[in-house]
Design a protein that fits this description.
The protein folds into two domains: about 120 residues, NAD(P)-binding Rossmann-like Domain (Rossmann fold); about 180 residues, Rossmann fold. It is built from twelve helices and twelve strands. The strands form two sheets. A seven-stranded parallel β-sheet has the order 8-7-6-9-10-11-12, sandwiched between helices. A five-stranded parallel β-sheet has the order 2-1-3-4-5. Helix 1 links the parallel strand 1 and strand 2. The longest helix has 19 residues. The chain is elongated. It starts with a strand and ends in an 11-residue tail after the last helix. Bound molecules: glyoxylic acid (2 copies). The site of one glyoxylic acid has 6 residues, from loops.
């Protein structure tokens, strides 16, 4: 019998899969983000063997030190930058993520939605109508950007980037990408053209969409200097992790029209926003919801349980991130 703690309510499927195996599962009774101290406190109530954690949980040696019976933290997310992998290694704890195909699909859809909304100025125009400012059709009002023949740069050509390319191709965009490794499928199926450096894709793109994990090497990947390489007519989309973009530099670039606009689902200091961001007309923002649809979240729930079960049944979980 194994004891599993889940740091917040997630779709039921994981809980029932674990219970079917005879595991005892405790879900945090608070439906909110737990602090490190609260997680440590919950984990001290029982000899837990495994934890299902969320991207809002800050997991490091403070927790590993106080919960030595826990051998696996299965993160209910594609990203796992909320977990200190060096500390996990030092304590011999296994970490898995949940890169559900349907969540990649949902994130890609969200990135494309940002691009369409920015190009057609949907959010600004909606506000205009709601404010009662619409007094009649105008020939030069709310001029947008067309997609056909424009260039999309994917920064990160992995699973999510590939799905963005799938939709982008249908919209008539040319696709270029940069990554540490080339992705043959991206090139064969979507005609994506590879460039070795970030600078090269930034200079050419009309839309730049970020699909990299947050790592020391990707923190502030998009900073003042990189923004200045982008076209003044271009748009930046971030559905990856907030700190990949220097948010103050982005605010300044949007304000002085170094670039035309941005769509952000993630923020450097989320849930806080840097000062002045909300006052800009050329940014649209959503509260880290890119993977939020029921099918995606249920598939993530299933994957998280599979990783836990594989681990305790002596198989190598499919999504170990600290081998
Ligand atoms: C969401 O941000 C995820 O990493 O799954
Ligand atoms: C990024 O998380 C990717 O899979 O492309």
């Amino acid at each position: 019998m194994k004891n599993i703690f889940v740091t917040r309510k997630i779709p039921e499927i994981a809980i029932s899969m674990l219970k079917e195996k005879g595991y005892e599962v405790d879900v945090s009774p608070e439906d909110r983000i737990l602090s490190q101290e609260e997680i440590i406190n919950y984990l001290s109530k029982k000899e837990y063997d495994g934890v299902i954690s969320l991207l809002t949980d800050n997991i490091d040696k403070n927790i590993f030190e106080k919960s030595k019976s826990v051998k696996i933290f299965a993160n209910y997310a594609t990203g796992f930058d909320n977990i200190n992998l060096d500390d996990a290694k030092a304590y011999g704890v296994t970490i898995t993520n949940a890169p559900a195909p349907l969540s990649a699909e949902a994130v890609a859809q969200h990135a494309i939605s940002f691009m369409l909304a920015l190009a057609s100025r949907i959010v600004e125009a909606d506000k205009f109508v709601r404010e009662g400012k619409y007094v009649g059709w105008e020939p030069m009002h709310f001029m947008g950007t067309d997609f056909l023949g424009k260039t999309l740069a994917l920064v990160g050509g992995g699973r999510i980037g590939e799905r963005v390319a799938f939709y982008a191709k249908g919209l008539g965009l040319k696709i270029i990408y940069t990554d540490i490794a080339q992705n043959e499928r991206l090139e064969k199926e979507y005609g994506a053209v590879y460039f070795k450096t970030l600078d090269e894709v930034l200079k050419q793109a009309d839309f730049v969409s970020l699909h990299v994990p947050l790592l020391p090497s990707t923190k502030h990947l998009i900073n003042k200097e990189k923004l200045s390489l982008m076209k003044p007519t271009s748009f930046l989309i971030n559905t990856s992790r907030g700190p990949v973009v220097d948010e103050e530099a982005l605010r300044d670039a949007l304000k002085s029209r170094v670039i035309a606009g941005a769509g952000l689902d993630v923020f450097e200091f989320e849930p806080k926003l840097v000062d002045g961001l909300v006052d800009l007309p050329n940014i649209i923002m959503t509260p880290h919801i890119a993977s939020a649809n029921l099918d995606a979240r249920e598939q993530m729930s299933q994957i998280v349980a599979e990783n836990v079960i594989d681990f305790f049944e002596g198989r190598v979980p499919k999504n170990i991130v600290n081998k």
